[in-house]
Design a protein that fits this description.
alpha+beta, five-stranded mixed beta sheet, 17 strands, globular
Length: 464
């Protein structure tokens, strides 16, 4: 319900923005424009760009070979996502690689990591090439973590200097009139900025997965046009990245397979962005005053979205003419999206199930409404957020590894026990021994969750 309300709000904002624009288009700048760097500095300062020549050549080679290997092994897949209640195949093909047991959810679709080689985990890959590709992307992940920490430290130093400079001016202006007040100024007011601690930096830059993207624009029958600025073909529409740790850094490595046959246009003759070249587009969210940015992306370029940029701004990916890969490293919110979490939830639910030592008959320890509600909510979560999500995507993960099969078998076993628990609740509430008020409360919350389960099962069946 909360997600649907958010989608409705977003659609209303989009509709209002397009109505205000009418037939007009908002201005946007590229590096060819005189005010480009000034706009970047003042309105988009939390976007950090690193050109490919700042990255070690050995890392470029490893990562780019891993992209090509994964494409050759047919490991990239279009996702079926749900937007405004309708199912769509994404134009971009993807694969999620990261920490064992991690998942990432976007547009109602949960992706499961192909685990990169991790100490303490027995991960069997389908062939050595996939192992090497995952290892290379883990190396890139480590490199981008270090770059993200440096970028945040640089941002903190810059903001500290700005605060101190502003405070000095304020003090000079107020010194003559408020000597007493100046003597009692607190540490924060005096411009002494407490540096961000190492734990916070680590939490916001310790990437637990990367979402890899691949698209060949010339193979696409249709690409959406960018609606606000007239920037041309979009590979990925305007969005905020979802399900991330708050204020965490998103790091993106871009690799377009640039062909000498695809020539870039003469910048002096071109108005706007070069349609032959891939770009990342940025805009201030739901704003028609601030011009947008379109930044060209070449082989091996990197960009970082720092702090709250992902919340205050939106970004899109503008298609060029050549095929392109990207590796988008994220600190995914793992509070509800890891195997460890869902196994813990299952164990919590099954605490309400007991086995008679003599007859081996199963029964429930409690029929309290709160307990029944918790168990049935977990029942729904296991079925619709994990099992159906995993198996709906077919055997795609088996092209890389069979790592998820054992955990999924374990979750299925827990789910079957929860199905039995649902039957036991139905059996118990039919009996007359219970206090009527308690019985009615249990039935009420129980039926709501059963109806939700029935509705979701119909929706999933319709998607098949």
């Amino acid at each position: 319900m909360k997600r649907r309300a958010g989608e409705r709000e977003k659609e209303l904002k989009k509709k209002k923005l397009l109505e205000e624009l009418g037939e007009n288009r908002l201005p946007y700048l590229t590096p060819a424009d005189a005010d480009f760097h000034q706009l970047w500095k003042t309105k988009y300062s939390k976007l950090i760009f690193r050109k490919s020549d700042t990255v070690p050549e050995e890392l470029h080679q490893m990562v780019q070979e891993s992209f090509l290997t994964l494409r050759e092994q047919n490991c990239f897949f279009q996702d079926l996502v749900r937007i405004k209640g309708k199912d769509f195949l994404t134009p971009v093909s993807r694969i999620l690689i990261g920490n064992p047991g991690c998942t990432y959810k976007y547009l109602n679709t949960r992706l499961f990591t192909v685990p990169w080689p991790t100490e303490g985990y027995d991960i069997k890959y389908c062939n050595p090439q996939i192992h090497d590709a995952c290892k290379a992307l883990m190396r890139l992940n480590d490199y981008l973590h270090i770059e993200a920490v440096k970028a945040l430290q640089g941002q903190n130093l810059f903001e500290t200097k700005e605060i101190k400079d502003t405070t000095v001016i304020d003090r000079e202006q107020s010194f003559a009139t408020s000597l007493t007040e100046q003597g009692s100024v607190s540490e924060v007011q005096s411009g002494v900025c407490v540096p961000e601690d190492d734990r916070s930096l680590k939490n916001r830059t310790s990437y637990n997965l990367t979402l890899l993207n691949y698209m060949d624009p010339l193979q696409m029958l249709y690409l959406k046009q960018e609606p606000y600025f007239g920037m041309g073909n979009m590979a990925v529409s305007w969005h905020h990245d979802e399900n991330l740790v708050e204020r965490s850094v998103v790091a993106v490595y871009s690799y377009s397979c640039e062909d000498s046959a695809i020539e870039e246009c003469n910048e002096q003759e071109l108005k706007g962005r070069d349609p032959a070249v891939w770009h990342v587009g940025l805009k201030v969210a739901w704003d028609i005053e601030t011009p947008g940015l379109a930044i060209p992306l070449h082989q091996g370029d990197i960009y970082l979205m720092l702090d709250d940029l992902n919340m205050t701004h939106q970004h899109c990916v503008l298609a060029g003419l050549s095929p392109r890969f990207s590796s988008t490293h994220r600190v995914a919110d793992s509070s509800r999206g890891t195997l460890e979490y869902i196994l813990g939830q299952c164990e919590l639910a099954l605490q309400n199930l007991q086995t008679d030592s003599d007859s081996m008959a199963l029964s429930l320890k409690s029929l309290e409404a709160a307990v029944v509600k918790q168990v049935e909510e977990i029942h729904n979560e296991v079925e619709f957020e994990w099992l159906r999500q995993f198996w709906f995507q077919g055997k795609r993960y088996l092209k890389c590894t069979d790592w998820w099969l054992k955990p999924m078998a374990k979750l299925e076993e827990f789910w079957r026990k929860m199905e039995i628990m649902t039957s036991l609740v139905l059996s118990e509430v039919r009996k007359e021994q219970q206090i009527e008020e308690q019985r009615n409360e249990t039935i009420s919350c129980f039926l709501l969750l059963l109806k939700e389960r029935q509705k979701l099962r119909k929706e999933w069946t319709a998607s098949l």
